[in-house]
Write a structure and sequence with these properties.
alpha/beta; Helicase, Ruva Protein, domain 3; 506 residues; five-stranded parallel beta sheet; elongated; 12% strand; Rossmann fold; 3 domains
């Protein structure tokens, strides 16, 4: 649609046979067209195809106002903003109208007076879909004047009008969103008395400002977002207001690791040059997503506040940057993200989780390391036999020989230690990992596709971290390196008196 060719006056608009419609009718019509053409209703929204999106489509078809209810980082605001894509490209409004008056149904005194004066010569402008969106973050200091409007004494003085004249009104953000979509984020943060001011707008579409007897049938599609848990000193959605919001739609976190990885890949931001130089193995991507899954069930993390998808996104970016920093320091042309690089994502974890009392006692950094270890354990079992099965003493010598981790563990029992500098060059790291007896054999036996020596080394490093996570060997995280050694020797060095039978690995 070319805006320049559209009618410029009310008379031209009448001749064009333009038919006005409400916002909800307009959105419904355009959604039906998308559904019929099999075009996606919402773009770049991953994981909601069979849950949230169908609920939103049903709400729009029913011409409902919508409340998105869910924990942080569940794309509530993004969904709300994308509803504007279902609006028409342009709609006509009376020129100079503060509240986007429909030329055929003017409601403001400005529009009524202009049509009375100019008739069919009334000038028309065209409003784009992008300009028909209003949004307000609910905070305790929001007032009725902000949302609805108030008397403007400065306007009254300048125009020499008394306060009984409708022209002295200053409209709030909601009337200014007339004939569009208005979003209130974090609705429970609005004070209860402010929420009450929305009753009439939702029920009858009109507004009340001070003592004015206004009957302004606003045409607005309202979308609200809210978190179901009280993680701040907030209130709640008052029951009569909630009753007036026709559709409440529950959002959720990704239900599978694959979906979570797809979201992170779409949302993560990094330099294209860095991506070309640094290989990011799928194993590392899975570990990062697994950390978020572990956090959502951790006894140290407050599950009521949620664990945002932004944690995985920023962790992905930090892991890449950790590898990039090493690449720059070593003046290498290519590298990959290693398991040890995941220590670089700890700041992405500590800033994204709310801890319960036990977690606060452990400390944010230790909880982050604990989540990383749990993620390694979970992913390790997808590729290798469960090390727990080989911890207890075996009476049968044949069972001992069948333990796939025997050579690796015995190498450390013989007094060997492996110290991996986190900033070491890739070739040196491969060489160090190659010293541990039994690692290449494990990779060859359990991992089907290994393309090169560097990938082999990655799996070897993963095995060491996995065995440490299952307490078959020890692991110390030092300032610049990670040290692997014999578990029993480490325990003895700590001065712990433990019974030999209780600590027998084989």
């Amino acid at each position: 649609m070319n805006k320049d060719t559209l009618p410029k006056t009310l008379g031209e608009l009448k001749k064009s046979k333009y038919q006005p419609q409400t916002v909800k009718d307009e959105v419904r019509k355009n959604l039906i067209e998308r559904l019929e053409s099999k075009e996606p209703s919402f773009k770049n929204i991953i994981g909601y195809d069979n849950s949230v999106i169908p609920d939103v489509e049903r709400a729009i078809l029913s011409k409902h106002n919508i409340l998105f209810l869910g924990l942080r980082g569940q794309a509530k605001t993004r969904m709300a903003r994308q509803i504007t894509d279902l609006l028409d490209d342009y709609i006509p409004v009376i020129e100079g109208s503060e509240i986007n008056d429909d030329p055929f149904h003017p409601i403001s005194i400005h529009a009524r007076n202009m049509i009375a004066e100019k008739g069919d010569d009334t000038p028309i402008t065209w409003l784009s879909k992008a300009d028909r969106y209003g949004e307000k973050l609910a905070t305790p200091d929001v007032t009725v004047a902000d949302l609805i409007g108030d008397i403007d004494p400065i306007k009254a003085a300048n125009l020499h009008l008394n306060f009984a004249d409708e022209r002295v009104l200053h409209y709030g953000i909601i009337p200014r969103s007339n004939r569009g979509i208005f979003v209130i984020n974090e609705l429970p943060d609005l004070q209860a008395r402010i929420q009450v001011s929305l009753f009439n707008i939702l029920q009858d579409g009109d507004i009340q400002i001070r003592g004015f007897k206004l009957r302004m049938p606003l045409d607005i599609l309202f979308v609200f977002t809210a978190n179901p848990e009280d993680y701040t000193n907030r209130g709640a959605i008052v029951t009569p207001l909630k009753d007036r919001i026709e559709s409440q739609i529950i959002t959720h976190y990704p239900k599978s690791l694959e979906t979570a990885m797809e979201i992170t890949k779409q949302e993560a931001r990094f330099e294209k040059e860095s991506e070309d130089k640094i290989y990011f193995p799928d194993l590392l991507k899975q570990l990062i997503e697994q950390i978020a899954f572990e956090a959502r069930t951790s006894e140290y993390v407050d599950g009521k506040s949620g664990v945002s998808a932004r944690m995985s996104i920023t962790a992905y970016e930090n892991a890449l940057s950790t590898a990039e920093r090493r690449l720059i320091i070593n003046k290498e042309k290519q590298t990959q993200v290693w398991i040890s690089d995941l220590l670089g994502i700890i700041p992405s974890i500590t800033g994204k989780i709310e801890l319960v009392y036990e977690g606060e006692q452990e400390g944010p950094e230790q909880v982050a390391i604990n989540l990383l270890e749990r993620a390694i354990r979970s992913q390790f079992l997808k590729y290798f036999p469960n090390p727990e099965a080989f911890k207890k003493r075996r009476k049968n010598q044949q069972q001992i020989q069948e333990n796939p981790y025997r050579n690796v563990v015995q190498w450390f029992e013989q007094g060997n230690k492996l110290q991996l500098d986190r900033d070491v060059r890739d070739k040196e790291k491969q060489k160090e990992l190659g010293l541990v007896d039994g690692l290449p054999k494990l990779v060859k036996k359990y991992i089907d596709k290994v393309n090169n020596q560097q990938e082999t080394a990655l799996w070897e490093e993963f095995i060491l971290h996995g065995l440490a996570a299952f307490s078959l060997i020890s692991k110390k995280i030092l300032d610049t390196e990670t040290e692997f050694g014999d578990l029993l020797d480490t325990i003895m060095n700590l001065g712990l008196d433990m019974d030999d039978d209780d600590n027998e690995i084989f």
